[in-house]
């Protein structure tokens, strides 16, 4: 679509304000920034507006203004316990003397009638349109409505509305022990990095189960995961957990093949696995320093295909309880699972024809929408292939649920926490399944800051806030439910996205972007409701610039914050343990930060220089700054009586990295007032290489580096046992 060079700027600004495209914000240094009008135009276009001339822009404004007034009540409304149960109601001014009859159909199925006299309601606003004058009223709902999803029907003669009323609790779920002020600890890991004596070259759900049990035996109560969202089984090289095909389903590469019941039943599968050549391939994959995703996928999916045939023959066709459980799972997940599995089968089909086929935009037009005749024909002819991908999802949920059960049975208070990525890959299953709810002409990112002067463009298409509400938030609800399943907590990556996301126009760097706002209270209400129903604690990754709306909304909702020790330097000291927020998940570093040993020895800076990210001058400047940070950290350790042996912050020769430094830093972490702290196993093992270098793709093997020891070895080490015991004692003090 072309853009008129003579567009009236006030018109663009008016449309931007109506659409939630923000013109002003504070940058990373607290300085006010004003987004130029011309940068808002491609964002508005990405939302679907026609800005080819002033007349079309005016028409878009009129449409936006009328849209909220055209319903008697909005199609979806969210109210919160502890706040007034009021929603907006729009009627012709001529009907102010009328009575409106209605009915609530509660989620339980119970019905209750209501009667509303319009002239008894508070008038909030008036608006004149060419055909009529309307008034906006404040409608009070019954205060005893239970939490849940309810259906309100309201009508008066030819005026009728049906609205989904979501009643949210006042807060997210919080375990009783944390409410009482208890402090717990655990570990946050990238699942694929785990090594065991029995893995197939990648950490799996049995590895997770083993880790949870071993951590629990040391007194830990939580174990955190990277996103385990579905990627692309037919393209294992697409390995980034933060660029998934779907956030509603699980990556089946994490399955432990030998733990599946069909493996014990399948003579053919066991013969394949026991073959010396196959065993050699497993051994090679297991001892590799980095995950060989192609090799791992080849090994696992060969066997899984045989197990599916065994399952079909022995369970589905004969109607055993196990077969019925699978069919019940398919019924519960319904059309969403069917579309996801159909996408997986189509992806594999077209990738066989063209290795460069990276997603649905590469497919013939007839296959780019899930409801087309071509897709229906493919589904009829490839039902077994589609059922195979459903089977993988069923198995993944079972094994994840077993890992969580093992964590709780071992005594953990929380168990597993899952990680919800900020977006999805534009070529993946979620976008293909419901393209209307995504804006494909924009990508999510971050505005310019001191580290990235041009900002960050993550290449992930954002939810369209208007379409999301038109769909009664169904895609968001499903996503939250899916990720709160089989775990005790959920970490929401870039939680500020509940309020606003930085949209970058396609083909432009992030400094051409702008913030687009979302209905924070509605989305937070859904999170609180699902959190309470699933007894799932919620963390919000709120690093960086935090808008005041987030600070005002999340802590009262008992949504925990996320703090990183290495980001807490304040002059010549780091934050003292007592300054950390109590209602927080705190760690020393995370997946985007170098390991502790690499940070201390500036190896991350050398790596950035080697990769061409930093020039020599910047590398040296960063090293000087890092040295100041290390001195500040040592001073802080001394302040809390955790001085590393032989270390003097005034003598650089004494500042070498040792295991004692690592341990003392973890005792500092353990002393913080945060209710939850997590350590990285990489730091315990003193690993130097990172799992991810932000800003790189093929330059560095991101999301592939494994731990250097098996879990069996790590937890058998007496020095590690002593470290965990000390951390546990400090947390309990």
TrEMBL record:
It comes from the Bacteria. GO terms for molecular function: 4-alpha-glucanotransferase activity. It catalyses: Transfers a segment of a (1->4)-alpha-D-glucan to a new position in an acceptor, which may be glucose or a (1->4)-alpha-D-glucan. Gene3D superfamilies: Glycosidases (3.20.20.80). Its EC number is 2.4.1.25. Keywords: Carbohydrate metabolism, Glycosyltransferase, Transferase. It is an enzyme of class 2 (transferase). Residues 74-169 form the MalQ N-terminal beta-sandwich domain. The keyword GTP-binding does not apply. InterPro entries: GH, Glyco_hydro_77, MalQ_N. Belongs to the disproportionating enzyme family. This is 4-alpha-glucanotransferase. It comes from Endozoicomonas gorgoniicola. The lineage of its organism: Bacteria, Pseudomonadati, Pseudomonadota, Gammaproteobacteria, Oceanospirillales. The gene is malQ.
